[in-house]
Amino acid sequence: MGNESVPVNYLPILLFIGIAMAFGVVSLLAGRLVRPSRPYRAKLSPYESGSPLFSDARIQFPMRYYIIAMLFVIFDIEVIFILPWAVRFQSLGLLGLVEMLVFIGILLVGLWYAWKKGALEWD
Fold first, then answer.
1. Which residues form a coiled coil (predicted)?
2. How far apart are CA 119 and CA 123, in angstroms?
3. pLDDT digits over 68-120, tens only?
4. Rounded average pLDDT over 21-35
5. pTM of the predicted protein model
6. Which residue from 84, 74, 66 is spatially nearest to 104, judged by alpha carbons?
7. Whole-angstrom distance, CA of residue 117 vs CA of residue 98
8. In sequence order, what are the residues at sequence separation of 6 or more whose Cβ sits closer than 8 angstroms to the Cβ of residue 75?
9. Domains of the chain: which residue ranges?
10. How many whole angstroms separate alpha carbon 78 and alpha carbon 109?
């Protein structure tokens, strides 16, 4: 370290941050000066696709939608944990099997709870 003070060691980092911010600001300003700006009525409409608006976009979704989305995320994460376990299954032995069964059991209890609350319907 020597006799250098701590703030002097951070000078290259601060310089890099300053250059990065200046590059961003200069890029945005150059883009604003160079790009064409020719607005017309169709371009200023809410949707450029040409489809007319038929209802308000701010509608309430049923609570069931959010519960199903959360269950999807949970079971997606479950797959992330099960794949490495399946690859190393032989070396983990009985303890690894029991731990995975407990993990899957906890997830199945959550699935059963969501089904009992009426968030899921299997017809």
1. none
2. 13
3. 788 788 888 888 888 888 888 889 889 989 998 998 898 888 888 877 777 66
4. 95
5. 0.43
6. 74
7. 29
8. 107
9. 1-34, 63-116
10. 14
